[in-house]
Design brief:
This protein folds into two domains: 318 residues, Outer membrane efflux proteins (OEP) (Up-down Bundle), CATH 1.20.1600; 86 residues, no CATH class. Helices cover 66% and strands 14% of the residues. It is built from ten helices and six strands. A four-stranded antiparallel beta sheet has the order 2-3-5-6, with no helix packed on it. It has a two-stranded parallel sheet with strand order 1-4. Helix 2 packs across helix 5 and helix 8 runs antiparallel to helix 9.
Length: 455
């Protein structure tokens, strides 16, 4: 019985150890999470299928440009009735419609090959090939634009985890100080020393409840940030960040005019619109040339064979069972559907102009967005520097109030005010660091200064 009990305890310890190990959060770097997010995102997969679609369109257009059109027909079968030679001479039977067909049967093999190779189309095929090639580039830009959006979203969630952990550290420090102050206050009340009353105890208890509420809200935000990362990255692990603090690079300035110019040229949304516009320009050119004929080399081969002797010598009778022939020639083809061509020409040009205006509107929006991000970055930087100094001052204030409180010379209101100021300065400082980091990452990604980690 004792042996069984010991075995059960050992297995219980193993299970507890396994659960505790499996519940430890796994650390990820930002680059690893972005790679996972891009790899597992369904919208990226969907856009990649669009890319494959345009790749197929390009292959189709390139094949028409480089390869001839070839059509091959083949047929083999039977039975075929034998037609006799006396069909070539006039008899009483032939006058009455008898064609000399007996009961013997055979086989028939028949084939035809047609080919057409365009040698000059007034640029139509070349324009369509270029349009398909640029359309493939536009599809690739759409994929990259989505990957950039995912990278920004994951960066926001990643640094939110660090921010919430830093805020929890600030609040936990405040909680520790409040507990120490309450303990000291209770001692002073018991000894009836110092300038304290029961009312001071109530104040501390009230601010403690406020602090616990803030801690609960922060933990909820931390949990939501981790859940957001799970969804964005397509993983179910409990996530922790490899970085523990939001690092701020000193002296690394931003030139807004440089970033605006770089964003105009490097934003994948603009690249996609420009590629689509160029593609439509080639389509419009091809459509405007549809009024001209296509010059081509064409030819064909015809072959038929049967095991019966059907080699007719009568010039008025066609032998459809035994023949061979081929021909090659130069030709031109032009359809005369002028109205339909004119309508398609108008449609193609309208689509081109639509993306021309869309490009101009997008560039204007990018300029405004870049300026806004820059101003928000500068605001966050100023707030960070201001509240960094404020946090240091509040810490000195809190230290003084705590020392006075411990010897019974301080008052509860001064201690609470110092605690609130210290916590508030620390929280705003960390939030400003977060804003700086996210704005900088966004600006660098948009300007092409930061590369997106690949899956």
């Amino acid at each position: 019985m004792l042996l069984f009990y010991c075995r059960m305890n050992i297995w219980g310890l193993i299970v507890i150890l396994f659960i505790s190990v499996s519940s430890v959060a796994k650390e990820y770097s930002l680059g690893e999470l972005i790679s996972l997010g891009i790899k597992n995102n369904k919208e990226v997969m969907s856009l990649k299928e669009d890319r494959e679609y345009y790749k197929g369109k390009y292959i189709e257009a390139a094949s028409a440009y480089y390869l001839p059109y070839i059509n091959v027909d083949f047929m083999a079968g039977g039975p075929i009735a034998n037609r006799k030679k006396e069909v070539n001479r006039v008899t009483d039977a032939s006058n009455f419609g008898y064609m000399g067909i007996d009961s013997n049967f055979g086989y028939l093999v028949r084939s035809s090959v047609d080919f057409l190779y365009p040698i000059y189309t007034f640029g139509k095929l070349g324009d369509l090939k270029e349009a398909a090639s640029i359309g493939l580039s536009a599809a690739e830009s759409n994929v990259k634009a989505k990957e950039m959006e995912i990278a920004i979203q994951i960066s926001q969630a990643y640094y939110s985890i660090i921010l919430f952990n830093q805020i929890l550290d600030v609040l936990s420090d405040g909680e520790k100080r409040l507990k120490e102050a309450r303990k000291k206050l209770k001692e002073l009340l018991d000894r009836e020393e110092g300038n304290v009353t029961e009312k001071d105890l109530y104040k501390l208890d009230y601010y403690s409840s406020e602090l616990y509420f803030r801690i609960s809200e922060t933990k909820k935000g931390l949990s939501l940030a981790r859940s957001a990362l799970n969804v964005l990255c397509g993983i179910s692990d409990e996530i922790d960040t490899y970085e523990k603090e939001i690092s701020i690079k000193e002296g690394d300035g931003i030139d807004p005019s440089e970033y605006i110019e770089l964003s105009r040229n490097n934003r994948y949304e603009v690249k996609a619109i420009r590629d689509i516009k160029r593609s439509l320009e080639y389509v419009s050119r091809a459509q405007s040339r549809a009024y001209y004929p296509d010059i081509f080399i064409g030819g064909g081969l015809r072959f038929s064979h049967s095991n019966f002797d059907f080699d007719e010598t009568n010039p008025w009778i066609r032998d459809d069972f035994n023949y061979f022939g081929f021909a090659v020639g130069l030709g031109a083809r032009l359809t005369l559907d002028i109205g339909a061509k004119y309508g398609k020409d108008i449609q193609a040009y309208a689509q081109f102009m639509k993306y021309q205006y869309l490009e101009e509107a997008t560039i204007s929006g990018i300029e405004l967005q870049t300026k806004k991000l820059y101003e928000e970055y500068i605001e966050a930087k100023n707030n960070y520097e201001t509240y960094l100094r404020g946090e240091r001052a509040a810490k000195k204030w809190l230290t003084t109030e705590t020392m006075n409180y411990n010897i019974g010379l301080g008052d509860t209101k001064g201690l609470i005010d110092a605690l609130v100021a210290y916590a508030q300065a620390g929280i705003i400082k960390n939030k400003s660091a977060y804003d700086m980091k996210i704005k900088r990452i966004t600006l660098d990604l948009y300007a092409g200064k930061m590369k997106i980690p690949g899956p």
